[in-house]
Structure formats: C-alpha cells, structure tokens
Amino acid sequence: MxxxxxxxxxxGAAINRIVRWLALSKIHPNVLTFIGLVINIxxxxxxxxxxxxxxxxxxFRWAGLVTVGAGLFDMVDGRVARATDQVTRFGGFFxxxxxxxxxxxxxxxxxVYYASINRFFYIVLTAIVMTGSVMxxxxxxxxxxxxxxxxxxxxxxxxxxxxxxxxxxxxxxxAVLWVLAVLSNVTVIxxxxxxxxxxxxxxxxxxxxxxxV
Length: 213
Hints:
Layout: H1 3-25, H2 29-49, H3 56-83, H4 89-116, H5 120-143, H6 157-169, H7 173-209
Helix pairs in contact: 1-3, 2-3, 2-4, 3-6, 4-5, 5-7, 6-7
C-alpha cells in the first residue's frame, strides 16, 4: 500500500466518523453549509488583516488552517444530507449559492490585503481570479441548460480551495494566484468548446431524427 493510499484511507475513515456523528446529532445539512460560509468569512478576515500584521505570513497560515476547517464542512454537508435522507432540490441550490459566496469572501480578503500594502498589480490579478472562479461555475450551470453534463476542465472548486490553502500555508499566494488566473480561464474556454461540440452533436442528431416533409 502506498503512502498516499494509506493517507486517503485514514482521512476517509475520519470523514465517515464525522458524518455519522453529525447525522446522529440531527443537525440540518443546510446549517452545515451556512457554518462553512461563516468560517470562510473568518478566513477572509484573517487574509485581509495580514496587511496590518507585523508578520503577514502568520495570518496567512492561520487563514489557511481556517480554510481547511471550512472545507471540512463543505465536504460533509452533502454526505450528511444523503445519510439522513434530507437530499432536496433546494439543498443543492443553496449549497451552490453559498459556495460562490465562500469563494468570493476569500478573494475579497485577498483584495483588501493587497490594497493595504499598495500592490496594485495583485489587486488586478485577484480580480481576474475572482472573475474566473465565478465563470467556471456559471459556464457549467448555463451549459447544462443546453446539454446533459459539462464537467470538463481541471479547475473546479475543490482544486481552487486546495490551491488557496497551499498558497496560504507555504507563503506562495502570489504564485497560486497566477495558477488560478490561468487555469480557471482555461477551464472556462474548455467548457465553452465542449458545450459547442455537444450542442452541435445533439442538434445534428435531432435533425437526422426529424422526418422530412
């Protein structure tokens, strides 16, 4: 067994225990989703105040750890909903909306940080990342009104969160923002191309099935 496999099994077992405990506590999954948002706002505040801290790396590391905690709630809310038979259409919608607010809160914190230290270029870069993160989600949601599924592209929300955590914990946020800016927009372009191809395929199939008069 590899180290990564062993870590995955241990982590999975811990998550399953948390899910069982939360299911027994009868807490509503939507409450877990909202708690995740509150924790992400806390992380955003830590990012923002790093500009006034004696050592910004300390607050960035704390922000990274808090983001890990928020990610835990993001991982378990859906599982708790399934374990307690509380999966609803609104729950999925609510989770998606709160995820967008959580993403934007983190980036708002970074915007405040870069503004406080007068790094105009990184303010613009963070704004590009914010736009890309929203567009990754929007293109999928809009595409799936026209085609059955659109999950192509690498940079979905879990990958974005992991990169933000890495940037915060290892003081590599500038590099992470570059990666996010490029890959999020590459993902958007990939989804646009995929949707065009799938929509054309479906339209061509419909034309072949339509009887000629």
